[in-house]
Records
---
Amino acid sequence: MFLCATFAYFTASVSGNDKASSIIVNTAKIGTITFADGDEVSLPDALPGASSDEKTFTIKAEGGSGFTSIPYSIQLLVTKNEITNSELEYTLTNAGTGDGMIATKTEAITATTGSQTIGSGTIAPNETHTYKFKVTFKETYSDQSTNQGASFEGKLNVVTGEGTTYYNASNPSGTTTQPSSTTE
């Protein structure tokens, strides 16, 4: 299943000298955000070292004369995290090339609920950024029985522009309201 979202970012500039009366507005926009296999992440009844969920998504910017680079951030909305002791981690890997791409990173997910920014970048006109996101219940080679039968649920969002706009499978045209569950 491919899910797409589009959004725009505006810039204004005055052309000419200090007496110029015209303002030219150029619209730069990210053409699509595609989640190849959905934006929901889950680990039901997770097992250490054996449970993970991976998502691939692409951010593509359109180009043209006067277009500008667009900053964005990638967020993980945690709706349920029963895995304690920092034994749950994510890895965000850039799977392409581009000057403004997020560097590969791995961090623990410690929030039980709420939004966590997992990276930010800048995309230039006519550029495509592809990422792989993976959440893993890591094996510590020690007693992990406190997390027996624990689960994790969340959703990925790509956010851009002034005044936050959220894009995901449920809001392909964007919304200014932060999603509060995996059903939005």
---
Amino acid sequence: MKKLTTLFALLAGFAGFAQTETVCHTPATEKFAMFASNKSFNKKHPLPDVYVHVSAAGGKMIKIKTDGADANAYVIEAKTKTDNWIFVFQEWWGLNDHIKREAENLYNDLGNVNVLALDMYDGKVGTTREEAGKYMQEFKQDRGNAIVKGALAYVGKNAKVGTIGWCFGGGQSMQASLTAGGQAVACVIYYGMPEESVDRLKNLNCDVLDIWPTQDQWINKDVTEKFQKNMAAAGKKLTVKSYDADHAFANPSNPKHSKEFTADAYKNTLDFFKARLK
């Protein structure tokens, strides 16, 4: 009986340890998706402005082959052929006209570069907080990785890829740079969930610029400091630009939008990309 009691105790302890390990290693995408059930997080995302983006640079929607269903993307091709690409990742709303406008801004301001905004929701665009939260929670990282791999095949093996995203897309920018391997040259994250696994970060091929609003309750000081420690442990270069602002401060539809901080963050973003896309 004593042996059985000891065995049960060991099994219970192992189960508790396994449960703890699972919680500690929840993937970054799933961690961020959990925020969608938080009413306070949802209120930080005012409904996006309704408008139709008309591209002056020839942007168009295309289909990309993936290991699964075809993916959607918005592409703006450089006027002169180049292997420089920027992959753009949506906020939790989806690939809406705001993201297409951001893609076109990057295209215009970076110079000779191709820009590809990827639709990570496969055609779904949230127009309410409830829809956006639902789509973000339904998103599977395996599908996201497949979309990025399809995009890499589309741009070709010689492409040099920079990634950028906001909110949900900030985390996807990081995951895409990991997926891109040796083709990744620059990663920009705006208030997104970073990768926590040091082992995975060791495989990152590029520097990272983290745009961090210090008032953010979710991508907060603890998350940011842990990211800094993990990147240092992985031997990777991370630059954190902090702003006395709140989550989603760079979105013009946000009542807490800061034109001053947005302009400075954007300047840092352009400088970061230009130094690495040569």
---
Amino acid sequence: MIRKLFLNDKFILVLILINAMILFAGGFITNGVEKFVLTLIDNMITGFFLVELIVKFNEFSLKGYFKSNWNKLDFILIVLSIPALVAFIFNAEIVNISFLLVFRILRVFKSFRFFKFIPEIGHLIKGIQRALKASVFVFLGFVIYIFIIGIFSFYLFNESAPKYFNDPIVSLYSIFKIFTIEGWFEIPEQITKNYSQISSFFTCFYFIFLVLSGGIFGISLINSIFVDSMVSDNNDELEKKIDNLDKKITELLTKSNYDETRKDIRQD
């Protein structure tokens, strides 16, 4: 009975849903009996997930269990939840094992198991993998472009606008905000407050160029490549089959022509 229950995906999905609602409700209740009850239920569900893990180990064996990438993800998420369960059972706060508090936050990641039950999630993940592979070099080039512009802008405006260009890291972040069309007009206005008319003109022209090159053209290019690769079908295997079929047809035609030629020679 227990074995069938923990091998039932619907039951596991219900546990995940309850766990997600408990984590959500826990953000509104910070102390008192209600907080303890929510924490108790959360850790009970972690215990259920451990039982699920043991049942599946017995059912599929270790090797069989880890053949599935989803099972690997489940295993990692369950293991990350164990320290919080141990801290709750043994009241580790009294022992002052403060680092376990960090692991308590990781229990939120148990909600990632939702993805396992999304229809066609495998096809979606394959699409994302294709998109990342296709856009990685464009993305890398864009990162280098942000880096160059960020350093260049730091040396140009670190004195006139220290709020946005105080150091190279802050400068990179400010340039990234401009590329996302966030604060693209506020930053140049702050810089040009004490500038002359000519300096203000070239400064504004500089930021217009940044918005056009990075914000409109750059990010749009990355998005278009990513989306196009993600929605396109992976026809590599189909193309191989068609090539093999074409090769076989060519061989058959060649053999047929050869046989007809030999037949004509014999008749002559």
